[in-house]
Amino acid sequence: MFDCVLHCELAWLGDDQPAHDVRIDVVQGRIDAVAPGTAAPPGAIALRGLTLPGLANAHSHAFHRALRGRTHGDGGTFWTWRDRMYRLAGVLDPDSYFSLARAVFAEMVQAGVTCVGEFHYVHHQPDGTSYDDPNAMSDAIAAAAGSVGLRITLLDCCYLGAGIAPDGTLLPVQPEQRRFSDGSAAAWAERVSARSEGGHVAVGAAIHSVRAVDPAAMATIARWAANHDRVLHAHVSEQPAENDQCRAAHEGSPLAVLNRTGALGPKFTAVHATHVDDTDVALLAAAGATVCLCPTTERDLADGIGPTELFRAAGVPITVGSDSHAVIDLFEEARAVELDERLAGGTRGNHDVTTLLRAATADGHRCLGWSDAGRIAVGNVADVTTIDLRSVRTAGAGADKALAAAVFAATAADVTDVFVGGEHVVAAGQHRTIDVATELELTIGELWHAVEAAG
Amino acid sequence: MFDCVLHCELAWLGDDQPAHDVRIDVVQGRIDAVAPGTAAPPGAIALRGLTLPGLANAHSHAFHRALRGRTHGDGGTFWTWRDRMYRLAGVLDPDSYFSLARAVFAEMVQAGVTCVGEFHYVHHQPDGTSYDDPNAMSDAIAAAAGSVGLRITLLDCCYLGAGIAPDGTLLPVQPEQRRFSDGSAAAWAERVSARSEGGHVAVGAAIHSVRAVDPAAMATIARWAANHDRVLHAHVSEQPAENDQCRAAHEGSPLAVLNRTGALGPKFTAVHATHVDDTDVALLAAAGATVCLCPTTERDLADGIGPTELFRAAGVPITVGSDSHAVIDLFEEARAVELDERLAGGTRGNHDVTTLLRAATADGHRCLGWSDAGRIAVGNVADVTTIDLRSVRTAGAGADKALAAAVFAATAADVTDVFVGGEHVVAAGQHRTIDVATELELTIGELWHAVEAAG
């Protein structure tokens, strides 16, 4: 719990324009006062550029970072990519996952992310048996986040099957998926109930997808989430094949099935939602649910462009995630929501700049269950991210276009400072306690050696 | 003309894999020897990471950089964006364009670009009269490139009209377009013929588009290019409206009209080519012509996704350009060729990694008329760009995936060193003679003050 006073050249307080000369007082890790138009008091930490609320990365599979560059030039489809991802998942253990996740989470923090939603399904040992501590893997991930100053919502994911059989039952998990499965939703609920939250860790529920969870299990998970007042995320309609199989087996789209089982509600987030239709969007809107788009992953995996014009028209909030971590750059994700709709629809200016910023901040935090984060406001946690407005990328836009410059010109490399709970975790563009690139190189290299050794 | 010896940890010599421990001897600005698997001799400059041929940015309008962040959050279409661009163009003069272009070109060099194709149409004074030196503006641009170590092909652009009238004639230029027009193709040819090339400067021809050049003028320009053995570029089918107007007036697509007038050939490059069809692509292929895609601009301007699968199938080489400079990052452009096709087609691995790298290097240089650049090979100019393979973005891919990491993970921020003609122009990621961001901030700020003053 940290105390400090920040003084921001420009800070986004939620309006259409940033405020100038903003003093932010931090007491015990929370924002105690916000005063625009104020001179810097002695001892204040001066933040040049634009200070934003800390960014929320609403959908992450941390270990996928090890695939970056190693699969992205390859051919095939989502499904061939997945095979390689499974080989990697096969060699993880709590120690190696801690090391990898710590490096990946540090890359995120250095990119301005202060809270991540980790959609976590590598729970068990490779043969499917539980670790001595059934939550050893999620503990490792949570510890990794904490070690680099990142808040985390552990979206603990139920994963029970390998696809939908024609009769609507689930196909049994394949050998490489065994470690993802708790065997039943009841066993999942028991394990997750044993995981406490607090401090930098929140716990949410996740349904992997209609491919991996049957409707009865969905209902169990939805009940658990409702009873525990937790957020609930699910991969939804990422691929047309998933829709086809779901409709054939369950007489409804993935969202229709999720809705029937009670999953939809204000705490529900549909991840991807690339291949949803008007009816699906109406279900989301009626429930007050959220979508999480992962545009750089959807580009990489050839998923397609989601119907963001439908979400906008229906008032379904959009959040963003770096998902497979082909790229870790929330600015790129936010602008891609707009740019990919431009490609699909032929019109500019579909999503307001502030809407795109909210996707990466307040709306992202909300869908991860952090109601006291994502806005620079009194009482909220003191999580802020400052970007350089005078880098080679951002220079020239001017103060009155600072928000647009953040969304449309900045990259993760423009993040100069990050505070989490008032702690100064990134300064001068570098994480203060970890050499991120070196840790990534080391841990990823070791993992692939293990994959090779495993044959 | 510089002499030095470089020693590259990894260098791409055109093969599917980079070579290790590559010694490159530079004599008088050219590559005199290339020796893979060689220890570093005393005095060699060690280049850690992956060394590529210098990048070619095949389509640029330098002054558009001043729009970055200032227009990209706006609504409307390509056409509303263009209005704002015209206001900016209206205040340029040779001095201010030199200053702006110098900063923009320095941003490019720092991003690893060693050769730019500047599609140049702001030739005259705002009222359309010639400067005392009719090539004062192109001289300013060429000098700006030279001042920061960048090779340039001045694609001097003929621009005569404001659109196609129903009878097939050109509408007269609008007041804000007067300074783009030479009045006739003959006058254009006379002016361009007076512009010498040599050293870091090549001169090519450009037809703005079927919207701005009538078929008779196209024929004059095509003859000029053929007689002078120069490259010829044209904006082609960027917008569906352009196709519709062209077909209505000329009974053919823009490429069909260009073909009739003799413009197509091995030195012809169709820029954008977003809305071309099979017949158009067959024309390009038969002519041995090239396309230049500008994916980040095409995203920003809501142009759409070009049919890269047709270019690939027909063997039409693809090059890339940053065009409006919403982004200056040739790695982003190269990967976007692939990623946007994935979005459109639903399949990964459409363009080989080496094809994408050639787009940004050898093919780009060739379409700009530099046959002795774009490959690390004996006799070529000593233009190379080194990227860090151990940054937060690139770490973990491993040496055998270094080329894929360059295309799919690297950004302009990963460029550590750039040599042009053996001169070390970028070191440790920074241009050695200009503070790029400061110059951008200064010159762009001054220009917008001028726009405001002009009312």
Keywords:
455 residues, eight-stranded mixed β-sheet, homodimer, alpha/beta, globular, eight-stranded parallel β-sheet
Biggest interface: A-B, 68 and 68 residues
| Unreliable stretches covering 5 or more consecutive residues of chain A | none
Placed side by side, the strands forming the largest sheet of chain A appear as 3-2-1-4-15-16-17-18
Bin the strand percentage of chain A.
15-25%
Q: Sheet bearing the most strands of chain A, described?
A: 8 strands, mixed
Terminus-to-terminus distance of chain A: 47 Å
The number of helices of chain A is 15
Backbone structural class of chain A? alpha/beta
**Global Rg of chain A:** 21 Å
Number of DSSP E strands of chain A = 18
Oligomer: homodimer
Principal-axis shape of chain A equals globular
Overall residue-averaged pLDDT value of chain A: 96
Helix content of chain A: 25-40%
Would you kindly provide a written description of the structure presented here, covering whatever features stand out?
Two copies of one chain form a homodimer. The first copy, chain A, has 455 residues and is an alpha/beta fold. In chain A, 36% of the residues lie in helices and 22% in strands. Chain A has 15 helices and 18 strands. In chain A, strands 3-2-1-4-15-16-17-18 form an eight-stranded mixed β-sheet. The first copy, chain A, has an eight-stranded parallel β-sheet with strand order 5-6-7-10-11-12-13-14. The first copy, chain A, has a two-stranded antiparallel ribbon with strand order 8-9. Chain A is globular, with a radius of gyration of 21 Å. The termini of chain A are far apart. At the A-B interface, α1, α9, α11, α14 and α15 of A face α1, α9, α11, α14 and α15 of B.
